[in-house]
Amino acid sequence: MRPALHFAHANSYPAGCYRKLLSRLDDAFDVHAIERIGHDPRYPVSDNWPHLVDEMEQAIAAVGRPVIGVGHSLGGALTVMVALRRPDLFRGLVILDSPLMSPWRSRGLWAAKRLGRIEAITPAGVTLRRRDAFESTDAMQAYFAAKRPFSRFDPDVLADYARLGSEPSDGGVRLAFRPEIEYRVYCTLPHVWSRLARPLAMPAVYVVGQQTDVIKPADLRFIRRRLGMQVEPAPGSHLFPLEYPLATADLVTRLAAGW
């Protein structure tokens, strides 16, 4: 029997956008995923994401056996939170450029929330200005192909973003991951990592994009020292799983070998 693997996507990119990566992983693992985190009204987005952690825990527990937890950005942070609470659900973790923030960055995040400045230090403000409606999936793909960070995506991933990351609306299509949910996720980024952190009870690797603009050296020190995670670099930006899906899948397979 193939090992079970639960994959959790980044904010605004439904699991379908990772089709190429997940198809490669499916060669070695029994792959499970939540299609759109934060869209189930039973698990609303709130400060520090407690209900999203509940949503993730329920999804992983439903697999029925311990999983290799793999998550990108939002999904990786939630996966770590579940692993800290329910280590029995996991064989190991591979976390892909997720916002596990050092104490000083967490304090800054808390202050930004209190002062109403969260849009200045996260992509939240941009989210609500992003175009949402398109005549067709082809039009959506052409529009985003000319914009960063999408212009860096693997061509198949960009096509999947248009095809699988959209839904019918008013004779055309719109973003399936709703901008108002994406906005709330950014505005409620966890600032509680220093309180939650302790060494993880399973093998755990943190993969950082070599050109990331999300993770800082202090965060990596925190991840190593407080969470006990091994840190591995990968080519690409914060969105490297969407830029290099096959290489990312192969890296996950290598890191999880023997778990």
List keywords for this structure.
single chain; alpha/beta; six-stranded parallel beta sheet; three-stranded antiparallel beta sheet; 13 helices; 9 strands; hydrolase activity; Putative hydrolase; AB_hydrolase_fold; hydrolase; Carboxylesterase_BioH
Task: Describe the structure in your own words.
The protein has helices at 19-25, 50-61, 74-85, 103-114, 118-121, 124-127, 137-145, 155-164, 179-187, 193-196, 217-227, 240-243, 245-255, and strands at 4-8, 30-33, 67-72, 90-96, 133-134, 166-169, 172-175, 204-209, 230-234. The mean pLDDT is 98. The protein has a six-stranded parallel β-sheet with strand order 2-1-3-4-8-9, sandwiched between helices. Strands 5-7-6 form a three-stranded antiparallel β-sheet. It is α/β, with parallel strands linked by helices and 259 residues long. It has one domain (4-255): Alpha/Beta hydrolase fold, catalytic domain (Rossmann fold, 3-Layer(aba) Sandwich), CATH 3.40.50. The protein is built from 13 helices and nine strands. It is globular and about 50 Å long. Helix content is 42%, strand content 17%.
